[in-house]
Design a protein that fits this description.
The complex is a heterodimer. By secondary structure, chain A is an alpha/beta fold. Helix content of chain A is 26%, strand content 28%. Chain B folds into 2 domains: 31-123; 124-371, YVTN repeat-like/Quinoprotein amine dehydrogenase (Methylamine Dehydrogenase, Chain H, 7 Propeller), CATH 2.130.10.10. In chain B, the strands form 7 sheets. In chain B, strands 15-16-17-18-19-20 form a 6-stranded antiparallel sheet, with no helix packed on it. In chain B, strands 6, 7, 8, 9 and 10 form a 5-stranded antiparallel sheet that branches. A 4-stranded antiparallel sheet of chain B has the order 1-31-30-29, with no helix packed on it. In chain B, a hairpin with a 2-residue loop joins β12 (134-139) and β13 (142-147). Classes of the chains: A alpha/beta, B mainly beta. The A-B interface holds A 57-58, 60-63, 65, 67, 69, 80-81, 83-85, 88-89, 91-92, 95, 120-121 and B 33-34, 36, 52-53, 74-76, 78, 93-94, 121-122, 124, 140, 162-163, 165, 181, 205-206, 224-225, 247-248, 270, 297, 340, 356.
Chain lengths: 327, 385
């Protein structure tokens, strides 16, 4: 299933999804977003009513109601409450410029993300700007085994390592390495008291293909699979020889059909045989999106870079499948 | 675009000559925010209009005046309704409060009652019982009943497993249907002796919209999973399931005119309106007639009272009038922005609509004779003006 909308991105309302385990600082960050003079009128959908201490008419309460669209598969779950409430909110679109959705600390971010691509109304009226995950540097190690923590790290486009003032530099660096092993492509921001520059949070356009991989152009130093004990991890695949689009498409489609529930995010820049342009690709569980991008620049290092973030990844099998797609 | 001068339609127009356009003149007016809902009182004297900014405007056609019951307050109203006796007006929305007004005679300022907080979040489904004084309100996962005669809540309320997406009363006011993700419940809250517990039907997806046919009591449920369920007369047995819609089925309307087996049913999914006719019993009983004209999402459907004349309102900025065979009779253009809501005056001769710029429209409509109901006892309800 493709997840792009026929409506141009500029005409759709940007949405930021804010996740993070209990106590990571989501409420503090929300209050900053609501009070900051960023010139944007922000509507916020919160889940623990009353926590946001700002008297703002555009704070809307929601319960996290999961709709299973198809046999209970995680890839087909959406947030029913968001469909209903955002449908109502969109009638008053002129009253706000940006929507922020806070999830509870124990939420899997996937249904929220999928809602914006699966629901026909939301897909055409909104665009997912970025998934921002707050990490509590002081306490994250205690919850590291929690499935929700690993999912929230895995789905993030922006990772805010919060409470940096409460840990030593050595501890912070250790956590950073662990976080990077799960998610090598998210932008990392370190903060104290959730004090983050707004331009790093709002208007990130991480789900627009052309921006999806521009956050950190050198994110792949080399081909690697991170060694770690966690069930959730990442595999980076790099290949200098051009790829065959048809083979690659078949491989990725089969891969997400088979392993979709375990594959959180895939992002890639593809170098194709006999093609001057780059091909960009990303996925969320079973939702796939790919399109041609700009031409490779003269002198640019032409190669295919693909990062797969998921659970129980078999790096060797993935590499073999990937290499079979060389043209 | 200037509006026509306000000459309020106190009495039904004289019938126009054949071949004349159905709609010749119009009235309009403006609220500050997009119109989210509008509804007529049963006698056709009052039209209430709600906006996404929380405005509530009451037009009094007998007195020829209008009263803004609530101003723009940055919090949406999404549902509005008159009790069947015309004594109470209800509105609810984003604040999660039930708002009620006591209505006096025409020309008398309505009296606001204290708002009733429900604590269930945004309210977008509520409906008065036809012929009675019960008000059904979807308060989160609770289906609650407010008794307009006793002026209090009736216990117990009915819990559903998910947030209530839609509710509807049968035309006789006996059956109340409500739907959420995974369940459609049928309740008869007014029977003095509780015979049956509420009937809970599992459904595969979320029921987004519900509609009972008139005396036949078919029940139709438009689903998020791009399908439509129709229960046969009396809501007993297995429903017919129609699938293959291009999008979620968000709007439904039944004609009040009885058909051979069932009245006409209209459904809207994305820009496609489909007219359904039951042609036989058993499976594959319904014949679809696609009404393809709108270019964007259809947001409202309504049959003229007692008629097979159908109006459809779309985000493409038009309202279309169709006959019972699915032929387009006349398109009505607005001011270029999408239409959100539609409501026929109970006399069947005036159509009200609300658009995304906050403008309300009122068109006099001469329903063609062939779409009108043949005279027969007990057929439909007509306003006595």
């Amino acid at each position: 299933m493709a997840f792009s909308s026929p409506v141009p991105a500029a005409e759709r309302l940007p949405v930021t999804v804010l996740t993070g385990y209990l106590g990571a600082g989501k409420t503090t960050l929300l209050n900053r977003i609501l009070t900051h003079e960023h010139g944007l009128k922000v509507a916020v959908i919160v889940n623990e009513f009353g926590e946001v201490g700002i008297d703002n008419q555009l704070v809307v309460d929601a319960d996290e109601e999961i709709f299973e669209m198809n046999n209970g598969c995680i890839c087909c779950t959406v947030r029913g409450d968001l469909i209903r409430i955002i449908g109502n909110l969109m009638k008053r679109r002129d009253r706000f410029d940006h929507l922020v959705i806070e999830t509870t600390g124990l939420a899997d971010p996937a249904p929220v993300i999928q809602t914006f691509f699966v629901d026909e109304d939301l897909r055409d009226e909104l665009r997912l700007d970025a998934v921002v995950t707050l990490v509590d540097l002081k306490h994250v190690e205690q919850h590291w085994e929690a499935e929700e923590v690993q999912e929230q790290l895995a789905f993030a486009d922006v990772l805010v390592l919060n409470k940096a003032d409460l840990v030593s530099d050595a501890d912070r660096a250790a956590i950073e390495r662990r976080v990077r092993a799960i998610n090598p492509v998210a932008r990392l921001i370190t903060s104290e008291n959730a004090d983050v520059p707004m331009q790093e949070l709002l208007g990130v356009e991480a789900f627009e293909l052309e921006r999806a991989l521009s956050l950190d152009p050198g994110f792949l130093v080399d081909e690697h699979a991170h060694e770690h004990d966690d069930a959730v991890g990442s595999v980076a695949l790099v290949e200098k020889r051009p790829m065959d689009l048809e083979k690659l498409g078949c491989w990725l489609s089969d891969l997400v059909a088979e392993r979709g529930p375990d594959l959180f995010r895939i992002k890639g820049i593809i170098q194709l045989q006999a093609e001057a342009r780059r091909y960009l690709f990303q996925s969320v569980h079973m939702l796939l999106d790919g399109d041609f991008d700009r031409a490779w620049k003269p002198g640019e290092r032409r190669r295919t870079e693909l990062v797969i973030i998921g659970r129980d990844l078999d790096a060797d099998a993935l590499r073999a499948g990937f290499l079979a797609c060389v043209a | 675009m200037p509006c026509a001068p306000a000459s309020w339609p106190v009495s039904p127009e004289l019938s126009v000559a054949p071949l004349a356009p159905l709609v010749s003149e119009r009235l309009c007016g403006d609220l500050q925010q997009p119109i989210s809902a509008l509804t007529w009182s049963a006698n056709g004297e009052f039209l209430a209009i709600a906006s996404a900014g929380g405005e509530l405007l009451l037009l009094d056609f007998l007195a020829g005046c209008e009263e803004l019951l609530r101003g723009d307050r940055d919090s949406s109203l999404d549902v509005v309704g008159f009790s069947s006796d015309g004594q109470l007006l209800m509105a609810a929305g984003q604040d999660g409060e039930l708002l009620l007004w006591e209505l006096g005679d025409t020309g008398v300022r309505p009296l606001a009652m204290d708002p009733i907080p429900l604590g269930g979040g945004w309210i977008d489904a509520a409906a008065w019982q036809p012929g009675g004084l019960l008000l059904a309100v979807a308060a989160g996962r609770e289906l609650r009943l407010w008794d307009g005669a006793a002026r209090q809540w009736r216990e117990p309320s009915l819990p559903l497993p998910g947030t209530i997406q839609a509710l509807a009363w049968s035309a006789d006011g006996v059956q109340l249907a409500a739907s959420c993700h995974g369940e459609l419940v049928l309740w008869q809250p007014c029977l003095s002796t509780p015979v049956d517990p509420p009937l809970r039907n599992p459904i595969a997806s979320a029921g987004l919209t519900l509609a009972f046919s008139g005396p036949g009591h078919h029940l139709a449920c438009g689903m998020l999973d791009r399908s439509l369920l129709v229960w046969p007369q009396g809501c007993h047995g297995q429903p017919w399931q129609f699938s293959g819609f291009p999008a979620k089925v968000r709007q439904l309307a039944w004609s009040e005119q009885p058909g051979r087996l069932a009245p006409l049913l209209a459904s809207a999914a994305a820009e496609a309106v489909i007219l359904w006719t039951q042609v036989k019993q058993g499976p594959k009983a319904w014949q679809p007639e696609p009404l393809l004209w709108h270019e964007k999402r259809v947001n409202a459907l309504a049959f003229a009272p007692g008629s097979t004349l159908l109006a459809s309102a779309s985000s493409d900025g038009s309202v279309a009038l169709w006959d019972g065979k699915g032929r387009m009779l006349q398109p009505l253009e607005g001011q270029g922005c999408g239409f959100n809501a539609l409501a026929w005056r109970p006399d069947g001769r005036h159509l009200a609509a609300g658009d995304a710029n906050g403008r309300w429209w009122l068109w006099p409509v001469a329903v063609p004779a062939r779409e009108q109901q043949s005279q027969r006892a007990g057929a439909g309800f007509r306003a006595q003006l």
